[in-house]
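Feature request, filed as a ticket because there's no other form

It would be nice if the structure record came with a short human-readable summary line next to the tokens. Right now we just get the raw output. Example of a typical job, pasted below so the devs can see what we mean:
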Amino acid sequence: MDNSNLLKQLIMLGIGTTSLVTEKLQEVSEQLVQDGKINSEQAQTLVDDMMQQIKSEQGNWEAQMQRQLRNMMQDMGVPRQSEMDELRGRLDRLERQLRDLENRLWR
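Raw output as currently delivered:
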């Protein structure tokens, strides 16, 4: 499975969960207004405060998921992009050196 696809799916799961929580929060606040426990302004403040907290926690969740995915990939032996770039550079240098040696031998 493509690791970036897995991360995208996890993020989409978080977004979907956030959407459900938002809907339920709206329903609860509307019910509180209908029951006369809070006014509409208080309901909006409640929703805004809760959404701000959810957004903050979602950012932390995404960062934590990225760290865990990176650690899992490292445990599986999947090289990082920087390691792959370094290996490609080394391979390019070795190929050039081999061509240079071959050219010297055939002169």
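Something like this underneath would help us a lot:
Residues 40-75 form the longest helix (36 residues).
The chain has two domains: 3-76, 80-107.
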